[in-house]
């Protein structure tokens, strides 16, 4: 049975430096095997919600039926000059002639912080440490009293991201009671990326970390790993970008968190099953398809398994960034 090519997505930012579209890329493989995914409801739903673009060179090498499927789903060819690439370490400015910003500019170190920003970072790091070490609820609540904006972001996220509790959560203690510590730990870590005030990178970093963490979790599930490992996979994806968020060596951030050796070594050294899952997702971010294929095979998976999981992760990311936008506008 022929395998489909890798369908990968690259986040694009708009003029306000918010994630606003994706660039589609298709690797090598049986193009026809990709057709069921592109004609499926999940892809149509995603592309109807979030603009999907592809370049003219891809259009030229796609079979007619695939090109038609993309166009029927609402995907559009990127016009010359429509995008502007930036890998600068300073805040990028989109030219008036361009519509989309590409590049890894948001992975650059954060700008020099003001005193208030430094204080906010200290509070966030302390919160991260308390959550990772399963501190008492009262200790974590005390951190939220120091920074009510953090509490605001957390409650917005928890109430909107499909927790399925059927009731409105209005306090931190209520969130713990209803969700449990493990699920709350997930939202707290995600919230750190959403609540990075005055950081022009935060919206794009939030989108990337949401995709990375969710993809790792879905891969762990598809690979037959148990639920606790799936949860660890999500957290490994989250932790892997904390160094970028805070502008500090990742090893220094992880040290006081007292994580398990397996989780720490996965994030820092790509060791073990979790480390390989992280490497797999990172390989798609830099289009290293052979690395992805090798790692997937070790879990009994293939590109045919990966493509729909990746799409599901991006769809999940939309819920995260839409809620963050609502929080900012509120």
Could you explain how this protein is built, in words?
The structure is a single chain. The protein is an alpha/beta fold and 330 residues long. The chain folds into two domains: 7-106, no CATH class; 115-329, Hypothetical protein af1432 (Orthogonal Bundle). Helix content is 59%, strand content 8%. It has 17 helices and six strands. It has helices at 35-38, 41-49, 56-61, 64-72, 115-132, 137-146, 148-160, 172-179, 181-194, 202-222, 227-239, 242-246, 250-254, 261-269, 272-285, 289-298, 303-329; strands at residues 7-13, 19-26, 52-54, 76-77, 83-85, 100-102. The strands form two sheets. It has a four-stranded mixed β-sheet. A two-stranded parallel sheet has the order 5-6. Helix 8 packs across helix 9 (181-194), helix 10 (202-222) runs antiparallel to helix 11 (227-239) and helix 11 crosses helix 15. The protein is globular, with a radius of gyration of 20 Å.
SS-derived structural category: alpha/beta
**Helix/strand order:** EEHHEHHEEEHHHHHHHHHHHHH
- The CATH class label of the largest domain is Mainly Alpha
Query: What is the helix fraction of residues, given as a range?
Result: 55-70%
């Amino acid at each position: 049975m022929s395998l489909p090519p890798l369908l990968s997505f690259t986040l694009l930012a708009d003029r306000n430096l918010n994630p606003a579209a994706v660039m589609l890329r298709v690797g090598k493989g049986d193009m026809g095997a990709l057709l069921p995914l592109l004609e499926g409801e999940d892809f149509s739903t995603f592309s109807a919600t979030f603009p999907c673009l592809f370049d003219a060179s891809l259009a030229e090498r796609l079979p007619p039926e695939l090109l038609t499927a993309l166009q029927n789903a609402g995907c559009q060819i990127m016009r010359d000059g429509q995008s502007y690439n930036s890998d600068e370490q300073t805040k990028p400015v989109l030219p008036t002639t361009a519509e989309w910003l590409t590049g890894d500019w948001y992975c650059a170190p954060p700008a020099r912080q003001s005193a208030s920003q430094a204080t906010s970072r200290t509070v966030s790091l302390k919160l991260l440490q308390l959550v990772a070490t399963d501190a008492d609820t009262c200790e974590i609540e005390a951190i939220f009293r120091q920074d009510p904006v953090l509490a605001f972001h957390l409650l917005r996220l928890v109430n909107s991201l499909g927790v399925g509790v059927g009731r409105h959560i209005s306090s931190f203690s209520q969130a713990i009671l209803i969700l449990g510590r493990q699920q709350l730990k997930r939202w707290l870590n995600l919230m750190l990326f959403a609540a990075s005030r005055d950081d022009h990178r935060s919206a794009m970093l939030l989108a990337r970390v949401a995709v990375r963490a969710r993809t790792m979790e879905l891969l762990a599930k598809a690979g037959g790993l148990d639920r606790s490992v799936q949860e660890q996979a999500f957290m490994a994806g989250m932790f892997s970008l904390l160094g970028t968020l805070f502008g500090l060596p990742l090893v220094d951030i992880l040290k006081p968190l007292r994580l398990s050796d397996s989780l720490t070594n996965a994030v820092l050294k790509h060791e073990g099953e979790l480390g390989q899952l992280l490497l797999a997702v990172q390989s798609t971010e830099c289009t290293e398809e052979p690395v992805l294929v090798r790692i997937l095979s070790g879990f009994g998976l293939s590109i045919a398994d990966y493509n729909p999981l990746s799409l599901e992760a991006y769809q999940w990311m939309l819920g995260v960034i839409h809620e963050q936008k609502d929080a900012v506008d509120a």
